[in-house]
Amino acid sequence: MDCLIRLWDLREGNCLRSYPLEVIDAPDYEDEEQDLAGVTFHNGVIKPTSRKVQYAKLEPYGKRQLYVALEGGYLQVNNIYSGAIIYNKSVEDNLKLEHEISDILFFKQGSKQCAGVACWEGFVSFISQPSVSNGVESIKANTKPSSHIGDIVSLDVTAKDQMVSGSIDNRICFWTGYTGKQGACIAVPSAADGRGCNNFIQAVRFADRESADTVVVVMSEGEVYVLEQQSQTFQMPNGSRSKKGTPPVSIISIPRKNEFALDGDSAGEEPTFDTKIHPHSVV
Questions:
Q1: Element (H, E) at 185
Q2: Which residues contact 1 (CB under 8 A, 6 or more apart)?
């Protein structure tokens, strides 16, 4: 929220350094008198800013890029070491989506799309690979229609650029990353555990990076379901399968290959995440 980058040493738990992000003042912010969120810099000059960071994610391919979602649906890419903006540097070229951003994922190197972006109110945008025009590098967003009617809160992608999205309307949608087109849409049955309609999707993850067949679905009240895309059924703890459209059973323990493990039992124990994180500095 203060427009600062902080680099941390995960082994020691120490903040290695902290410095301001370069932020371009958007037209709809210039005339508003808001409480200052922090400081930023432009052309080497430190100045106050009212822009607020909603979400940030580190690009995984060693390009030293941090994708930063700002309040109002603005998206920018900053250098992780200097804080300087890399693409779309002018106010006129500022990249703005129609809705607030809630999640960002990255497709493999060389893909047609650079990243997928989840937004509020059921919108999904695909970010193009950087292009050069008149000597200036920029990225563009292409918003696609989806079957979601609520805020999208989670995305995941396979090694083959197959994407899945989950939203608070308890719908799970599958996408082809190359074309940006949506495929199947599957709904988690309502009142699956008798707790009412306040239990909604919090995260979706492919069980195997090489396949889009199985998706782990984490709910807001702690349940974990396993969805088989082809049959559109939910796997049961005893190995049987529910019929299409019937409620899944909580809680399921299933490891995700090379990524994390979900632990819990049918007695209602909350799942825990054992996440493998790169041992060096992160944001």
A1: strand 181-187
A2: 37, 38, 52, 53
